[in-house]
Write the structure tokens for this entry.
Amino acid sequence: MCGGIGSRFWPYSRSQRPKQFIDFLGTGRSLLQMTFDRIVQIVPAENIIILTNNSYRELVLEQLPQLAPAQILAEPARRNTAPCIAWAAYHIAARDPEASMIVTPSDHLITRENEFLRIVRQGFDFVENRDALLTLGITPTRPETGYGYIQIGDEINAEFHKVKTFTEKPDRALAETFIRTGEFFWNSGIFLWKASAIIQAFADCAPDISRVFQTGKGVFGTPAELYFVARNFPGCVSISIDYAVMERANNVYVETASFGWNDLGTWSALYDISPKNNVGNVAQQCRVLAYNSTGNIFAVKDDKLIVVDGLNDYIVADAGDVLLICPKANEQKIKQMVNDAKVNFGDKYL
Amino acid sequence: MCGGIGSRFWPYSRSQRPKQFIDFLGTGRSLLQMTFDRIVQIVPAENIIILTNNSYRELVLEQLPQLAPAQILAEPARRNTAPCIAWAAYHIAARDPEASMIVTPSDHLITRENEFLRIVRQGFDFVENRDALLTLGITPTRPETGYGYIQIGDEINAEFHKVKTFTEKPDRALAETFIRTGEFFWNSGIFLWKASAIIQAFADCAPDISRVFQTGKGVFGTPAELYFVARNFPGCVSISIDYAVMERANNVYVETASFGWNDLGTWSALYDISPKNNVGNVAQQCRVLAYNSTGNIFAVKDDKLIVVDGLNDYIVADAGDVLLICPKANEQKIKQMVNDAKVNFGDKYL
């Protein structure tokens, strides 16, 4: 899935080239490319499908030239993850009714990749033999308030449990309690299931969405598919897979895992995982002369030189035509800023 | 005179295009062009001579295409204002031994231009009939500590006095005393005199410099002039006209004046004279969305959008490949920053 607009990282992430397409870690590969490189070790390249917004179709092909154009399912409208995943499931099931699938965001950071691959292989083994919706739960390493949590229920075996509850971003005290109990895991947003299982789950839990795709049953995998989607996909309600299915279904399982995972959801998250220089600043693709300044993240392209005095714990993000200077503690205001920029200046700076 | 490098305004002012060549006030004309536009109302265009560093020769011709190339005297080395003015005086005297001249920096802001022109015309009348070195003294409007002061002595008439003392940048208490007495005026660095008078003053007060130019007496105004200057100008001591002549000569007069004048010597000076938006920020050629931010000066080109939160009394100067974020109160550190940039990265960012 790589259709998001990444507005929390504006202006470094822009509507024309959002977060997943950016070489966010300075490795020479974008987050999307890193995700592809990871998944292709398990899923044959020809079986990888990219769900994205129609406006990013060319960008995906540019970044992943090994894909055939037909492997990109370009959504005609933004409808969050549930309709996106439904389309993918119907598309895959038309090709192989017995297919299993992994669903993964394209803009997360994953380290300890061998452990990730082991977990995914084990997850495929699990869902291939069960009518199960499996989510990967990450063993928490800190009382993070920015993540969703999964509480484990009945044990299947050491690494697999039924899901008892989902909890959206908890407050600090609750997050600390979660950690203490040992029953709570971070909700990674990475899912495994048989295509048939998620199609059935849509029918049971999200009949509105299910009905849209059922009416097109015969068209998936045929030349008529794109026309059908163009006409009907925009009619889907915009809702996440968590709300539409995972929190409602009763066959939801979690595989607990300890590979390194960060959803790179905020500047602070990026700051936390990035290497700091000797005075505690993070410099993304730029050079910094810092005086009495620490705790900052500088996201500035093209080897620009940043000279900064008396600035602490700020985000400084320069995108050429937009410069953002904002305390890390106020990063939740960025979405409002994007909106204000739109209200004042139209689409020019989005 | 337009040979300075403007390092106090780095990185907005760069060694390749320093302050005097920048449209600093967003008027469509650079400070040099504004100075030319002002002076050409009194001095015929063909009598205007531009003293600059050799590296800015092309830039001057580009900005002032009405000049003949011979009107640009390009210094082969930076030697401060005294050798610069000596060359100009010898050059002018060779053309007309009786010539009067006005010497003016090219990077100051002057308002109430008609009053300026009246003062200059009156100044020319004064020096044409006297062996006088005349400086313009500006009636101070605040106890500015960033300027030099001139104390007036014997009165010639209401607007002309002998100069009693020069005082470099005073501290606050002294500046306040200066204002109270009514005897002190800001030293504008704008001078009027006959070419012959300043040549004599060099002979009396700065014999080292005088000797250099006397050896070339016959060459000024001939094709041999540039060759002579290339060989001998770099041998001059680097010293300001104030130290070399004005503070030593005994025929120094001041014409007091009340046109608007600002040497634009610091970011704070620029902030002070610039129009503020409704929350007290100054935006130079850029658009600003400010949240909880006031007292800042944003000097950023090309209609860039600046989004800033929680920043007060800062300089934000973006020059494309360099971004400076520095409290206005620390602007005296900028020269050190330029030096650090040079030490760390060579000439790339100067």
Notes: The first strand of chain A starts at residue 50 and ends at 53. The interface with chain B takes residues 11, 287, 289, 291, 300, 302-311, 316, 318, 320-327, 330, 333, 337, 340-341, 344-345, 348-349 of chain A (CB under 8 Å).
